[in-house]
């Protein structure tokens, strides 16, 4: 996943476009989510690798596009604080997502289906 992100960001990083990167990154996220529907107990490693590769595309595109948009729109006098806020809220979003995942999967995650009492 991180190798795909590095390749994607290094090949698209010099272009000035933001909207195209966000659109392609969003579509790649949707494709990755659709591929997750096919993961099961008997899934081959090739499917997991393919999903990791697809997830690396938005990892390389979306953060790069957000940084380019920030550098294009922020006042030069406030560039440092704007970049700091972008990074701060990126980390806050990651922490909220981790907490939500821990809450929603507190009963465990397996391939047999939901056996926890809230799912009954």
Automatic annotation (TrEMBL):
Keywords: Membrane, Transmembrane, Transmembrane helix. It comes from the Bacteria. The chain crosses the membrane at residues 22-39, 45-64, 85-105. The keyword Transmembrane helix applies. This is MFS transporter.
């Amino acid at each position: 996943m991180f190798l795909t992100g590095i390749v994607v960001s290094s090949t698209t990083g010099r272009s000035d476009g933001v909207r195209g990167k966000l659109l392609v990154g969003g579509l790649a996220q949707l494709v990755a989510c659709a591929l997750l529907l096919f993961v099961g107990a008997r899934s081959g490693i090739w499917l997991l690798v393919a999903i990791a590769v697809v997830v690396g595309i938005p990892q390389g595109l979306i953060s790069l596009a957000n940084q380019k948009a920030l550098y294009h729109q922020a006042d030069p006098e406030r560039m440092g604080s704007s970049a700091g806020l972008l990074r701060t809220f990126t980390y806050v979003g990651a922490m909220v997502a981790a907490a939500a995942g821990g809450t929603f999967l507190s009963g465990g995650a397996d391939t047999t289906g939901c056996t926890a009492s809230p799912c009954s």
